[in-house]
Each structure stands twice: as C-alpha cells, then as structure tokens.
Structure prediction request, 422 residues.
Amino acid sequence: MPTASVYDVKTPELADEGARRVEWAFAEMPVLRQLLTTFAADKPLAGIRLSACLHVTAETANLARVLVAAGAEVVVCASNPLSTQDDVAAAMALRYGIPTFAHRGDNHENYYKRIASALDHRPQITIDDGADLVSQLHTARRDLLDGILGGTEETTTGVIRLRAMAADGELKYPIIAVNDADTKHLFDNRYGTGQSTIDGLLRATNILLAGKVFVVCGYGWCGRGVAARAAGMGAKVIVTEVEPVRALEASMDGYRVMPLVDAVREADIVVTVTGDKHVVDEVHLKAMKDGCILANAGHFDVEINLPALKAMSREIGQPRYNVEEYRLTDGRRLCVVGEGRLVNLAAAEGHPPAVMDMSFADQALSAVHIRQHHNTLERTVYSVPKEIDREVARLKLQSLGVRIDTLSDAQQAYLTSWREGT
Ligand code: ADE
Prediction:
C-alpha cells in the first residue's frame, strides 16, 4: 500500500514498529478480520468519503483498514491530545496509506488544526469519539453539513453531547450511538475501561493495589468495571454516586458507598469515571490524605478540578513519567496521573484489542447501515440496530468457539402467547 498523499504524524521513522503493533492487535480482533474479508468482496462503502476522529491506536488502525477494504476513502484524526500512539499514526500514514493527522501531546490549537484537516476531506460519513468532529462541523465548517449522510459516535460522553444537540434542534444529520449497543458498553466500557484504567495507573505509578483504599467516582458501566478490577487486585473499594439506583447496586455489589467528601479522607487512590466536571473539587482536595493519587478515566479532562489544585499548590514536580506531584501550600502532596486525561490511553494503550473488536465492528456495520438507509434517517440520535448488535455477538461467540442453544418452535410460540398460565 503506498504512502498516504497527505498526513501529519510526529515520528514517521517509527512506521515499521507501529505496523508490527497493529498486526499484533489484529490477531485479537477476529470479528474485524471477518468483516474485512466480506467487505473486501462486497465493497459496501465504495466511494464514500469518511472522516474518523478517534483515539489513534493499533485498534483504530485496524478499524480504518476494514473501512478502506469496504471501499471508503478514509481520513483519521485524533480525538484526544494525549491518546495518540505516534508509531501507529506513522504506520497508518506510511504503511497502510491512510491519511492520518495526529501527534501525541498536541496543544489545544494543533489538536483542532488536525480535526480541520480531517474535515478538509469533505466527509459523507463521520465517526467520532467524544463529538469534537461533529461539534466542529456544526460550528466552524457548517458549509460541509449538506454533504453529510450521517455519523456514528463511540462514547458515552459524545452521545450525551449529541442528544443535547438533538434536543436543542441543532443536530443537522443522523447519528448512530454505537455506545448504546450491548456489544459495546457491556464489554468495552466494563471490561475494557476496567482493565485498561488499572493498567494505566500501574504503568504510571507502579504502586501495589492490595490493601489500598481505592475510590471510584461513578458507577456506570465504566465505574462498575474499574471497581471490579480494583477489588480483584485486593484494593478496598469505595464507590461514590449521585444516582440512587446505581448507588444501591454498588452497595449490594459489596462496596462501601458514601459521599466523596467522606471517602477522600481515607483514599489512597481516587479515580473519576462520571462524564461530569469538577467531580473532585476544591472541597475534596482540601480533605485528601497526603500522597493520594488521582486519575481520571472519563472522556474529558474536566472531572478533577485541576485549576483549583494548581491554585492550592506551591510547586509541581514530576517524580515519574505521566505523574505530576502537586505540593500544596499546607505541605501535603497530591499526585495526578496523565494530566487528568483518560488514564487508560494517556498512561497505557487503551482498551485491549479483543474488546475494541466488538466496538469497532459495531462502528463499521453502523457506517454501512448509514450508507444503506440515510434516505430514511432523521436528524436525531439512533441506537445501533438490534440485528447489528446480535450479528457482532454471534461472530464473537463463533470466534471464541462458544456454541449456544436455540429455542424450539414450542418455546418460541410460548413466548408470543398469553394463554398458558398457572
Ligand atoms: N478507547 C478506549 N480504548 C481504545 C483503543 N484501544 N482504541 C481506540 N479507542 C479506544
């Protein structure tokens, strides 16, 4: 495959190393491999211009390869300034011929410059993770809106933003919320975020979790995953929540549940996974124990009030790569991992390929669905069609060698009748 005609990556010399990692990941992505084979034959996205704003990882490279095999003209930009794997970005551009715009460590201006480059492709389909691409299209590049058939959104935070846009009547094209698919959030959010958050925390700090007090803020699918994995490594987990049903669930799952302001008094580690801002605020920072480690696994870097923490500090050191130590004016030290950006991607490699396999299969099949049905879709946020969800689960089970039962005709009839009772 030739080098992409346009691209902007930081370390072109790492292309071979990146390509090796992309191939390694592909071995763990059987559903995407299957789609690549069928799409290469059927070309369901032939001639479609597609711009994807995603974390630029080995798994994303494999999604892009599948979309290219389907016939799409694909351009990729980063969906977070600190999640790009520079070797993979290089491989995408120089080994797989995919125009890629991504540098790890971009400042705000350059981050948006790369999104602008992806939009210069004049996409007909957008793939987003966090809704920055869609948001730029609806503000800076409204001239492109007419040409768009539809888009997909990967993450909880993005779906919340897009539903707010739809509610305000501002959303100008249909979006499929990939996050809503069972084959996405039950696995990617729970097992993916669960494992990779712990992975990022440990790579950055090398602390022992056994016996530590580990506070998880938020008990959505991601929070459930983080809590389960931390408990599995022997941490004493406390969950904080604002939603009563989730709090009750956390309590019956065996965790202590309490307000964050109480939890921080004993916390050795605090991880935010809520999607909201300033969850860890000045009042909590004031009450924390010396040496507490703070990390965020939510999409944006707003969950920990870093400006407040800076204002409370007399100096900031860097004891380890990806760890900043804030020395407060009262003498306490608080450590922030990965600048408060998603710790699993900033300090580790993101979710393992085996879960991204399902999320990205949902993405690819949803893009095809948009191509096939855009004429009948409204300017709103849709869930992933159930057939796609089931097909992805079926393919994954097949790849795992797991067989399941089927309903007999009598059982099928029973489920659709009301006459049989006690
Ligand atoms: N989001 C979380 N983990 C990811 C990964 N490995 N690749 C792309 N997006 C991700």
User: Anything to note?
Assistant: The CA atoms of residues 202 and 208 lie 8 Å apart. Residues 54-55, 57, 59-60, 345, 350-351, 356 surround adenine (CB under 6 Å).
